[in-house]
Amino acid sequence: MIDFLKLAEQAYGKNATVDDKNKLFEAFFNLKDVIVAKDPDEKGIAPLQRVIDKKICIFAFTSHGLLQHFEQVNNLAKNGPSPYFIMPMKGFIQWTMGMKNSTIDLVQFNFSSGGWFSPPGQIEIIYKHIRK
Q1: pLDDT grade, residue 69 (50/70/90)?
Q2: 60 has which bridge partners?
Q3: Distances (CA, A) of 118 to 5, 80, 108
Q4: Predicted pLDDT of residue 132
Q5: What is the pLDDT of residue 15?
Q6: 117 near 68, Cβ under 8 Å?
Q7: Sign of the torsion formed by the C-alpha atoms of 25, 27, 90 and 58
Q8: CA-CA distance, 6 to 45, in Å (whole number)?
Q9: 33-130 in CATH: which number?
Q10: Which of 18, 28, 60, 96 has its C-alpha lying 20 to 30 A from 88's C-alpha?
């Protein structure tokens, strides 16, 4: 199993290199699926949105354990597990590209000290760069 928290720490640490960021995103894009926190108040598939540092964020996770950590830290699991949906990676990339001109400012991955952010419109660009 890939340690995404460690990869993110290396990619965004003091001595991070472009290669470190590429390794993180390459590992991410090699996942089959992405877990996205769902807004419990919305019917259908709508991502949970929160404002962090004046930016509207949605939340994606590389594992159920990291989603559960997010639930605990944000007191979302008081009535049982928070809703989520799972998207195939290709669909996730296309979906976030469609947010390029929306009110969503950032996708926060893995919500923790080992998490990372990306503007939704950049995810496909990073994907194409990694796949060159």
Answers
A1: confident
A2: 36, 109
A3: 16, 29, 7
A4: 83
A5: 93
A6: no
A7: negative
A8: 30
A9: 3.40.1350.90
A10: 18
The Cβ-side half-sphere exposure at 3, using a 13 Å CA radius, reads: 5
CB 58 within 8 A of CB 81: no
- Tokens linked to 18: 């472009």
Tokens in use for 91?
């669909």
- In one letter, which amino acid is 77? A
Residue 122 and residue 126: Cα distance in Å, rounded? 6
* 41 has pLDDT over 90: no
Burial code (b: 16+ CB inside 10 Å, e: under 16) for 29-49 equals: beeeebbbbbbeeeeeeebbe
Half-sphere exposure of 107 (CA within 13 A, CB side): 25
Tell whether the model's pLDDT for residue 51 goes beyond 80: yes
* Bridge partners for 36 per DSSP: 60, 85
